[in-house]
């Protein structure tokens, strides 16, 4: 049914028509959302829509409303990214969160081996911002060896706080399709 999250961003202009649209402040009945290059430009009554814009007509009774963007999703639908760092797992995790209003997310790889981190980074790059996956949240690897909490010491990657010089720095993993978030919680002391 309708567009998948982030799919609209690949189209230059698009109108999405629905019976009811909530903009976060008020309701718009029989309206259309006008999206230009992935950005909502305005909401208008259906009869005032841009005639030359392609229009996605949602099924009768559809309500469109803003969705959540979750920046740390450890898993979903019975899948943990650490167990299966693949594009299919990321898609399944995003699908599982959609029914709760999450339109886009960053699947989280909890501190793990280099091989798992490399696989998760490759999966996020392959998805390139599609299917509701905005990128990847890498937890760690900067975890204190003296206070690792529930982290397995053998999974920490070397160096004083789990990462040696040049290993997995934001510069190393960042790409236009990959958002990396580096945790520096209080346990790094």
Protein model, in words:
The protein is of the alpha/beta class and 189 residues long. The protein folds into two domains: 7-64, Urease, subunit C, domain 1 (Roll); 68-188, Metal-dependent hydrolases (TIM Barrel, Alpha-Beta Barrel). The protein has three helices and ten strands. Strands 1, 2, 3, 4 and 5 form a five-stranded mixed β-sheet that branches. A three-stranded parallel β-sheet has the order 6-9-10. The protein has a two-stranded antiparallel sheet with strand order 7-8. It is elongated, with a radius of gyration of 20 Å. Mean pLDDT is 76; it is low at 1-5 and 157-189.
Layout of secondary structure:
Blueprint: E1 13-22, E2 27-36, E3 39-45, E4 55-57, E5 63-64, E6 68-73, E7 75-76, E8 79-80, H1 87-98, E9 102-109, H2 114-127, E10 137-138, H3 170-173
Parallel strand pairs: 1-4, 1-5, 6-9, 9-10
Antiparallel strand pairs: 1-2, 2-3, 7-8
Overall strand count: 10
* Relevant CATH superfamily of the largest domain: Metal-dependent hydrolases
Tell me roughly what share of residues is in helical segments: 10-25%
Following the backbone from N to C, one meets helices and strands in this order, namely EEEEEEEEHEHEH
What is the class of the largest domain in the CATH system? Alpha Beta
What value does the Rg take, in angstroms? 20 Å
